[in-house]
Automatic annotation (TrEMBL):
Pfam families named among the record's database cross-references: Peptidase_C1_2 (PF03051)
GO terms assigned for molecular function: aminopeptidase activity; cysteine-type endopeptidase activity
Main location: cytoplasm
The keyword Manganese appears for this protein: no
Compartments where located: Cytoplasm
EC number: 3.4.22.40
PROSITE patterns, alphabetized: THIOL_PROTEASE_CYS
Catalytic activity entry: Inactivates bleomycin B2 (a cytotoxic glycometallopeptide) by hydrolysis of a carboxyamide bond of beta-aminoalanine, but also shows general aminopeptidase activity. The specificity varies somewhat with source, but amino acid arylamides of Met, Leu and Ala are preferred
Recorded superkingdom: Eukaryota
UniProt-listed InterPro entries: Papain-like_cys_pep_sf (IPR038765), Pept_cys_AS (IPR000169), Peptidase_C1B (IPR004134)
Protein name in the entry: Bleomycin hydrolase
Lineage, broadest ranks: Eukaryota, Metazoa, Spiralia, Lophotrochozoa, Mollusca
This protein's GO CC annotations: cytoplasm
Record's keyword annotation contains Cytoplasm: yes
Protein species of origin: Sinanodonta woodiana (Chinese pond mussel)
Amino acid sequence: MALSVPSNAGVPHSNLAKYREKFVSSTKNLLAQNACTTQNILDICKSRKSVQAINHTFDLKIESEGKPITDQKSSGRCWIFACLNIMRIPFMKHYKMEEFEFSQAYLFYWDKIERANYILDSYIDCARKGETYEGRLIHHLLINPLDDGGQWDMLVNLIEKHGVLPKACFPESWCAENSFRLRGLLNNRLREFCMQLCQLVEKGTGEDEIQNAKTAMMEEIFRIMNIVLGTPPEKFTFEYTDTDKKYQSFKDLTPLQFYKDYIKEVVYDIAEYVCVVNDPRPQNSYNKLYTVEYLGNMSGGRKVLYINQPIDVLKQLTIKCISENKAVWFGCDVGKSFSSKEGLLDLKCLDFNLVFDVNPLKMKKYERLMYGESLMTHAMVFTGVGTEQGGNPSDVKATKWRVENSWGDKDGSKGYLLMTDDWFSEFVYEVVVPKSFLSEDIQRILDQEPVVLPAWDPMGALA
């Protein structure tokens, strides 16, 4: 058998010659080549006009924003940071604090443990249904079983069961801030455990033996998490001096007592918030309730639920929250049309057409979801909006949005980003708002039996 490559394989030589001749005949191409072979291509594509138009002034803003700006470092914990950044705002105001952070590492610790247990239960369930590693479902669940990211209802599960801690009582660790190695180790254990559990089910092993095996697996995960993050205190005391220069303290509390007695009953009840999404794919109707198969982090916990609405509904709900002094957790595709140094999320901030003669934004939002071009990748917080006032409050139109990020204070406006309203339309996928802010018609959607999307659906992406 001949091993040589046929002369007519691949792109025809005649076509390559034409491409080359056309490319080198363009002085614009040569200039772009000179620039892009020596610089970051995003810097070359950056629109000076868009950068000059940046103005971090907003006519609607929440009364006070949390301090200090937070930094998730090299981890995928944005969803946790965004939630705790929202929760601390009314907490700081009520308890008169100048600066404060809840422990992000504490929720990260419990999410890894609870999610490992949830995934192991999912493996057992799949095996009982006859799913194998050759099928798409288990293959999907094995890709990144203990991802750092998450969704809002997962946060509700964690906080309602385990409570929260001040960061001073359970500070960051190296593996919390640099989670890549930890995630690799945990994924290794989960994949091996999947193999073992599937083999047990396939052999017809009794339920008690399967559960005993799972218990031993969970002990491994628990041991790893305590080694790399430390062991959270069962009770804690937190002392501080308030803005009136008076000594204050929370004494001898469990994290769950702290949440229930000093947060939930006083300033912020996380369970009262729901997720409204914009999924414009034709097959997924608006005014329907959706969930995603095997998307969760707590066995027997609250399901991840999405109320699907047009994008203008998400905008009006966000404006209503901000006008009533409530910051808004949201999920988006942060990597698209983003100039990070300036903290600018703007469809016009990167001009690929000028440099490459291509337009990366030709696809519609639903087409990007369908063809893998976009999905939720990051969670942040809306704290302000610039508007054009309409005839009544419901007619208020947004022009730009103020965004609190969790990447430190070096970029943007001391860590805050500016998002144009057009960018919101194309790349924001979900907002979390109080259930009471929804119209009665939308609230009734929560009574529906949710449509179950497959585990690999893009709406199952973790922010």
